[in-house]
TrEMBL record:
Protein name stated in the entry: Beta-xylanase
Source species of the chain: Remersonia thermophila
Alphabetized Gene3D superfamilies for the sequence: Glycosidases (3.20.20.80)
Similarity section: Belongs to the glycosyl hydrolase 10 (cellulase F) family.
Pfam families the UniProt entry points to: Glyco_hydro_10 (PF00331)
Length: 417
């Protein structure tokens, strides 16, 4: 964990140093306001703003310039390279080349890792999905996989998505190889193995459409209780947030959803946020590029989602599933949908980026009591301190966050020096 703490320290310090430098600039210079969603997220009292990324993006210089930009992102999720088909393609053969490359890039950039994912029905190697296992065999396979992968990345993951997408839309369990052989017991079993493999990583259940399907949200609540009732540790629920422009629930509804889970005693986060235009709708009239109206609606929807995280003290942060349309999975997975990210395919910031940025500046100003009516405030060491204090007031979740708060405290000490 020491390594992980150092990484956070670097990431936080980079953002704070950047803002401290900006503070020394003449007040009339408004072009050098605090840059970056992560820096703003910290000053708004949250732990991070992050993005999914992977080795396929490593040779794109424009992309890398934004990814490495000071304060834009504080944490990354490997989009594919930690999935089972990549890390254990054949039984007991573990391959970490790609995931290690992503982890090293993250370290170079001062980014933490949000690690993804362990027990999931999809992107499974054939040896798992097409085997005819008995319970004892599949338990061995799960134990070996989770233990090996988590041990390899131990100390580098802020959190792991331990079980991913175990639910159908109606809230019943998905018919995966895991469910067929082990029943719902595979869920607490996965958390049990994970807790033993890395006692310090936050252990998450992660799923999509919890935002729009009440029965699926009921199912996720059932999973939290199932794991707890089995005596195992679950620290968080990840809301993927793969949403559609104009069909995104309101900030109030989303905040209520997050709060419902926070009341169960887990932390929550947006883990895979993207908000796609539905170009197949009749209204789009055959166009496959968003017009100004659609871009404004997308901005409003992003504000609802990020705002809901601001509204729930136990929401720790937001991760977008790629930051540029150039590399979004959406048009490939859902033909007719597209342009879901904060940056265009040619790396222009969209209205959604500006709206999220403005929201976070306002939230930061509210925390520090400084008006933003004229110039936005900068994330300063004192606002980071305020954020830490606010987080530690966020109920018993403060206990979960205490290692991180210790680091923020350490950062304060650095600034005093
Ligand atoms: C499970 O299957 C394996 C062969 O794959 C066998 O050796 C083992 O005895 C079986 N265990 C049980 C409990 O049936
Ligand atoms: C943008 O597209 C939407 C949906 O296709 C349409 O309803 C709207 O009139 C368009 N607005 C502008 C300003 O072109
Ligand atoms: C839809 O597209 C067609 C062909 O581009 C155009 O002639 C028509 O005016 C469009 N309709 C609307 C409602 O924008
Ligand atoms: C800031 O505080 C004002 C007044 O309480 C409130 O209306 C506004 O929604 C807050 N903004 C954010 C981003 O939290």
């Amino acid at each position: 964990m020491a390594k992980f703490r150092r990484t956070l320290l670097v990431a936080t310090a980079v953002a704070a140093v950047a803002s401290a430098q900006q503070q020394q600039q003449p007040p009339e210079d408004t072009t050098q306001q605090p840059e970056g969603l992560h820096a703003l997220m910290l000053s708004a009292g949250k732990l991070y703003f992050g993005t999914a990324t992977d080795v396929g993006n490593h040779n794109d210089e424009k992309y890398q310039a934004i990814l490495a930009h000071q304060g834009e992102f504080g944490i990354i999720t490997p989009e594919n390279s930690q999935k089972w088909e990549v890390t254990e393609p054949r039984r007991n053969q573990f391959v970490y080349t790609t995931a290690d490359t992503v982890a090293e890039k993250a370290q170079d950039n001062g980014h933490l890792l949000r690690c993804h994912t362990l027990t999931w029905h999809s992107q499974l190697p054939p040896f798992v999905s097409s085997g005819s296992w008995n319970a004892s065999d599949l338990t061995d396979i799960l134990t070996t996989h989770i233990t090996n992968v988590m041990t390899h990345f131990k100390g580098r993951c802020y959190a792991w998505d331990v079980v991913n997408e175990a639910l159908e839309e109606d809230g019943t369990y998905r018919e995966s190889v895991f469910y067929e052989v082990l029943g719902d017991k595979y869920i607490p079993l996965s958390f049990k193995i994970a807790a033993q493999a890395d006692p310090e990583a936050k252990l998450y259940y992660n799923d999509f459409n919890l935002e729009t399907s009440p029965k699926k949200a009921d199912g996720a609540e059932r999973i939290v209780k199932l794991v707890r009732d089995a005596g195992e540790r679950i620290d968080g629920v990840g809301f993927q947030g793969h949403l559609i422009v104009g069909q995104t629930p309101s900030r109030r509804a989303l905040a209520a959803l997050l709060s419902r889970f926070a009341r169960l005693g887990v932390e929550v986060a947006w883990t895979e946020l993207d908000i796609a235009h539905d170009f197949s709708s009749a209204a789009s009239n055959g166009s496959s590029a968003a017009n100004a109206t659609q871009l404004e609606q997308q901005a409003a929807d992003y504000v609802s989602v990020v705002g809901a995280c601001l509204d729930e003290p136990r929401c720790v942060g937001v991760t977008v599933w790629q930051f540029t349309d150039k590399y979004s999975w959406v048009p490939l997975a859902f033909p007719g949908r597209g342009e879901p990210c904060l940056w265009t395919a040619t790396y222009t910031k969209k209205p959604a980026y500006d709206a999220v940025s403005k929201l976070l500046r306002e939230a930061a100003a509210n925390k520090t009591g400084v008006s933003t009516s004229s110039a936005p405030t900068l994330p300063t060491p004192s606002s980071i301190s305020g954020a830490a204090a606010a987080l530690s007031r966020g109920g018993s979740g403060g206990a979960l966050l205490s290692p991180l708060l210790g680091v923020v405290g350490g950062l304060m000490a650095m600034f005093v020096l």
